[in-house]
Design a protein that fits this description.
Layout (H helix, E strand, L loop, with lengths): L1 H35 L2 H32 L3 H34 L10 H24 L2 H25 L7 H34 L11
């Protein structure tokens, strides 16, 4: 019985890791649609979002079944609770990729991004992809040092986000208010995507240590 129970916990972790791969792919494609004004790729991201939502539902159903039938305690209980929260964060990451794709579709056939900011979004897309794949590895390995390393990559995203604002707020910005609003919102989508990836990693730290990073009582 216990062997079957732990196999179910492992399956839950595998499903969460699979969601990381799904949202990484979604943001990679959404970024390509954004940079290239590619309507077909944008439509693919938009239609595939339902798969991310379904994956979250599957993870939550598994987690609640384990709570109801196994009454887990200690580390096992933390694992199940963390999975529920992580699935929510991953579903939101999928939504953020969806927002990027919808922006590309809304402006098509015109590009959303003025040329001066394209390099920022290419780099933000790279960092977002890296964070999602790092979160996937953390779920598999439960490596605390690797989990904490995600915050360094998140700092990289925050720096890009801040620099992006200096471009938008320049008094000589020639692309108009609507374009500035688009760029501001899109930058926020990438920044929030990164934040949710860090949140997933923090849940793994919670599983292993029993403490949430940043709670004030984390073991260092």
């Amino acid at each position: 019985m216990r062997e079957a129970y732990h196999e179910q916990l492992n399956q839950l972790a595998d499903h969460l890791a699979g969601m990381c791969g799904m949202v990484a792919d979604a943001m990679e494609l959404a970024t390509k649609a954004l940079l290239d004004a590619d309507l077909a790729i944008a439509e693919q991201v938009i239609s595939d979002d339902a798969k991310v939502d379904e994956a979250r539902s599957v993870c939550e159903e598994q987690a609640y079944a384990l709570l109801a039938l196994q009454a887990p305690v200690a580390t096992d209980l933390r694992t199940v609770l963390a999975a529920i929260h992580a699935a929510e964060s991953l579903e939101r990451m999928g939504d953020l990729a969806l927002h990027v794709a919808k922006a590309a579709r809304r402006r098509h056939p015109q590009p959303v991004l003025p040329e001066p900011v394209k390099p920022y979004f290419a780099e933000m897309g790279r960092v977002a992809l890296k964070l999602a794949h790092q979160a996937e590895q953390v779920i598999h390995t439960k490596d605390i040092d690797q989990a904490r390393a995600l915050e360094d990559a998140d700092d990289e995203m925050d720096d890009l986000h801040r620099h992006l604002f200096t471009v938008i707020m320049d008094k000589d910005w020639p692309h108009g208010v609507a374009s500035a609003v688009d760029v501001t919102l899109l930058g926020r989508f990438y920044e929030r995507f990164a934040d949710h990836a860090v949140s997933v990693a923090k849940r793994v730290v919670f599983v292993v240590t029993g403490r949430m990073p940043g709670s004030g009582d984390e073991e260092l």
